[in-house]
Amino acid sequence: MSWISKAENLLNNIDQKAASLIQQQQLKPIEESESDNTQKNLSNSQGLPKIPSFSKNMLVLSKTTPKKSTRSDHTDYDSFSEKSMSSRHTVVENDDDDEYSEPIDNELKKAPSNESFSAEKELATVKILMSELRSENSELKHEAEALNEQLKANASVMKNDDLESLLAILTDEKRDLTMMNQSLESSNSNYIKTISELESSIMKYQQNENELKQKLEYARNETGDINTELQNYKLRAQNQLQMKESLIHQLKLGNQVAEDGQTETSSDSTTLQMEIDQIRNERDHLQSELNLMKKRIDESRNFIEKMEHKHRIMVSDYEDKITNLDETIQQLTMQSTNYEDEIRLQKQELTHVREEMLKQKTHLTTKLHEKENELKRLKNAYRESQVNAEIENRVQSLTQSLITKQNNLELVTAEKNALRLQYEKLTTQHQDLLRQFRSQRPQMLSSNETDDVKSSTSNFLTINPFDSRVSRRVKRAYSQFDQLGIRFSAFLRRYPLARVFSIVYVCSLHLFVLLVLLQSTPSQ
């Protein structure tokens, strides 16, 4: 921050010097000698009328910038931004100085030689100052760019540090969350254990409650018996006391009457006194027993109250637990009802599927019985339609005779086929020779020859030039089928075994078709 303050001080000094030089220029007697010429030149020029405003602006900057330089040593990044803005303003004004210097140079060149000597010196000093300002400005720009880069790097470093700190915080939070998860799992397991323990303790408490109820009932019965005994004892004691007090009163009256002259009653008085003392002792003893009984009754009452208080507390706890258990039981009952509904639906579906399967089974069994009946009927018909043994013997004899005749025919046909093959070979050789002859001597056939060729071929298979494409294709296909039939018949004539196999195959096909027709029933 110190180099910024130094740069601002330099700029302020340069601004003050430039302002003083411009003021000196204005105070010189150049305007007196050639005021008219200079005024015209100045009015035509663009830069010189702005000189006073330029000097004022520079003076204003020189007044304002030192305040910022004094603050620069005690401020942070925000003050640095303000100072950089102020330095930019000074740079812009220095650029304005460059713009104003050019018209000043032009005007001073136009001035006469006797007045321009001092002005040239001042211009030289101004130019030197301006060059220094430019160099310092460029240095300051470079330094500002370097500082901006450093600031960006510092900002990126700060961002990286922030991100690293965030990562550390997130990792710590993740660890905390994992620890919390583990603690929650452990607490959940502990809760499950405590629930099981509470259930067992509830059972124990219920047992204790039943025992305490029995004890309370027993204590209440005992206290009732004791109270009845006390009341009876009180009544007895009161009756005895009343009787003895009446006796004492009578004895006192008797003693007062007998004091006058009967000495014999002294012994009786002594006996009465002894009886009175005994009665008093008995009374004191009874009072002490009454006090003891009252203490026992109070203790039993306190014990009963304590037991009743405990019983109430336990009853309230058990009622809360019972309500919770009732809620859980209700939830379980709801779930059980839902499951029962699902099971019912599945059972209904199973019953429907079973009914359908039974229907299909019955239908298929009926069909099977019908088919079995049809098979039995067909078997019976086939047995009835079988030929007798004599007919079979005749058929065998006929087949043997047929076989002998076929063998003879095969021999004859074999000879015939051999002759046919020789004939075909000769015909092919004859056709080849004819083709060679025609190729050697291409001439038009005479009418007789064409008639012979036409007579050798059938009119149906001959292709005319007036035929259409369809008719030509049909004739070609028919001729191909005819050739195939001729070749197949020749093959059968040559080989008698093939002829026998073909006959057997045709007979078996006919028999199979007959069986199918007889066994099949018309569909309703």
UniProtKB/TrEMBL annotation:
Membrane topology of the entry: Single-pass type IV membrane protein
Tagged with keyword Calcium: no
Parts of the chain that traverse the membrane: 497-518
Domain of life: Eukaryota
Positions of the UniProt region annotated as Disordered: 25-119
Compositionally biased tracts (Polar residues): 36-47
Coiled coil (residue ranges): 123-222, 269-436
Keywords assigned by UniProt, alphabetized: Coiled coil, Golgi apparatus, Membrane, Transmembrane, Transmembrane helix
One GO process term, biological-process aspect: Golgi organization
Key word Ubl conjugation present: no
Pfam families the UniProt entry points to: Golgin_A5
Recorded GO CC terms: Golgi cisterna; Golgi membrane
Cited PANTHER family: GOLGIN SUBFAMILY A MEMBER 5, GOLGIN-84
Protein's recorded name: Golgin-84
Source organism per UniProt: Chironomus riparius
